[in-house]
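Annex B, item 7. Sequence and structure tokens for protein A, then protein B.
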Amino acid sequence: MIYVFLFLLLLYGVIRYDVNGNIQNRLYYFYYIVLLLTFVSGLSYRLGADTVVYMAEYDEYKSLYNSYCQNFNFLDEGRQLGWVLLLSIVKTIGGSFSFLKLLCSLWINFVYANFIFKHTKYVFTALLLYYFAFYTNSNFEIMRESISISFFLLAFDDFLQKKWLKYYLYATAAFLFHESAIFLFLLPLFSKLNIAKHFIVYGLIVLFIAFYNFDLNTILANLLYIDVKALDKLEGYLLSENYGTSNNISTIKYLLICISCVLPLFSFYVLFKNNIRKEYAFFAILYAFICALMYKMPIFLRFNNYIIIIILILYVDVFVLISKKIFSAKYIKWAFLFFVLCYCMYKSTYYMSSTMCPDSVKKYSRYYPYSSIFTKKIDEQRELSHRTNLNR
């Protein structure tokens, strides 16, 4: 019920402020919802597969005054230095895992929300898309990576303005929390590509990767015979059944591939033709490219996590533009709402799919029914998924 309540609050914000243009108390209402999203996440109990793993690990960390902590080798433990220091600081001040979770939720959601508020005037629509597309993943699953993503969003304007020193400082901070942030060090190199001039070529490459049947798993795994402990976990992902290539692609999955790859390409084309957000073109192509790779090997999803909020903002602009171009003034608002709700329905199909382990459990069971640190209710379906995940 709490998730429906949040949805209705967001939908009200979309209609009142984004569609009807009301500005009274707009800022207060926006951050009121952000605060609710933060508390729903921060005060949750055993929601999300990764969160349970972090809960199990938390007791192993020591305070900064402990001699073990002073000799800690984060490479051996598979955790980045920034994360280790954060947990040790929380331990030092006597904080519990619940305090850590709330602290991370505050940081993550407010950085994400500030980015949305700064980069689009349709803030409630973007926040609604974030709620459906990324909220549960960023708040209940990828806590460490979400912190890394927040540093990238803080560095985004520096990236656009080519202030590379500040950008790389943020990228370094991001890498201190999750190894996937190595991706951020490569972004400036790819940003030099002339996206507009070679749009058709890049688009065809994306579609070829998405639909041509080749074993990307084997190709990349053969490149990882490097004796560096930080790469061990990545290599394990590449060679595992759960994170490796899937050759069983159904008709529905082909449809999802098509939507995931074509929608950002289409968004770039529409916005570029109308001279809107040309500086974002690189991210639209990159997102489509990584989506294509993701269906060959799901671990590439980690890289798209960094730019998904940027893409959601692009989608909002596209929904607005198409509504104004195609429909008469009388129906623009309804058309815009229709596009927004269609995207939300598309993203909600994720929760109806089965988890990897066990496959009898639906993904929504990781987050529903909701349980807080005050009630600590245990759901058997969710715990079945958690036990399997912890024993892998």
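Protein B:
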Amino acid sequence: MDRFFHCWRDLLSRGSLKFNVLISFLYFTITLLKTSVLMRIFTLLVIFIFTQFSFAQDGQFDASFGSNGVVELEISNEQEEVYDFAISPAGTIYVLGKVGQNSDNPLNYITAIRDDGSVETDFSTDGLYTSASTNYRRIYVQETNRILLYESDGTMVSWNIDGSLDTSFGNQGTLTIVPTDEGLSDIQLLDDDSFYVFTIKDIQGQITVMQRKYSANGDLDTTFGNDGVKLFELDEAENFVFLRQIVLDNDRLITLHTNGDYENRERTITRFLSDGGLDSSFGNDGKVNIEDGPYNFCRLSVFYDGSILAGCNFYSNEDLTTIRTTRKYSPSGAFMDNFGDDGIVSNSAGALIQENQRFIGNSSYSDFEGGFVLGYQRFLPDGMVDDTFSFDPFYEELGTARLKLDRQGRMLFAVSTIWYNGTERALLLRYNNDPLSVPENEREQFKVFPNPSSGLYNIQRIPDTSNYSLFNLLGKKVKEGLFRQSEDILDISDLPQGIYVLRLGATAQRLLKF
């Protein structure tokens, strides 16, 4: 409790007058609370109140992380690369990569960084694992805090949170998830810690996506598909080049792949039904080609209404930089020319959609030697710039950057510096960002009361019938259904205490359950 009070005093010493009044009120209220039940409720109220205010502009460095938003991993004195990173439910960041790639003894590494930027010394050996015999390429953290690692030979390895082998997973901690005649495309974790593995295979001249489902402990779910496997025929093998991405949209599967010969390559979005058949209601018999550019990289995201965002880029030899664009397709696959400027957002490739349906776009400037200056923008769902977001670029040119939103919605980058500025170094950068804020005019379109509540909420809205979805602060859907009257009741008594986001169509509102 003393640490809690010291925290308030520190905020008082740095805040504005208006902020200090709020903090003072909260401080003295806490001193009056005696029971653990009241303290628990009040703590949730404090969190709820603070999520309604922003004390730092979105897009600026998060000064509470490391040194003003920057953490140098300092793995070694040699070249440091970042392959992947994952964030645990507690906020610990696990960074995976390689050091000394060009040396005689390259090492695979995993390091653990706490939410404040300090090293998590309880992991492995003082927070760092290194090995010359492994080639881990991807990392995931389950809700139970177990760490899953994918190795280049097609195996999955499970670790406990301290870095020790989890022998309850698979066969004494390891599991082969990619057969030798298939290639890995993606791994996606589900809310209950089960996971999908997507691979591709040439089956009699047809490139086919194979989807398998595994339990949290690595057992193949034979009730899924046909003995645990679903098949999706993607393209003819002679026409296929590369499968870029797989996105799940409820029961539908959306893929993005490159096809065609070297001179006439196309980027094709394909939407499948859950049974593996093409969704004929989308595009031309389930397919849409991304037009107007020799794009060598595209990324997709799906809005709540089923429309698709495509952020693409290519390197221009004429301009000596990377050209980035974003476009949007309707749920039926039609190009939306009322998005951005005549259907295009220029100079930014967006593919990360937030819970409030605004999206983040990559606007980094690249040079001809492979380096770039980090730059990002945030946009409204219609492609207009969100001027409440102002990105603070990192002071140094980078060679690689991987972005994820952490569990509070902050922008977290795992980056490495560029070779021509000296030995490459691996860093973490964290920026303020609120993925849940909703415009006032949207909040007023339906009312919720009481809020906070212990589980029952009265909902008033127009129209009478509305589909709803409820999300937790991790962005995971925890409940959905249909309101059938203009005044209805939402019951979330079965959910744990916390803050949730209720979404009806394009509108949203936060709920506090105590």
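Comment on protein B: The domain at 447-513 is CATH 2.60.40.10 (Immunoglobulin-like).
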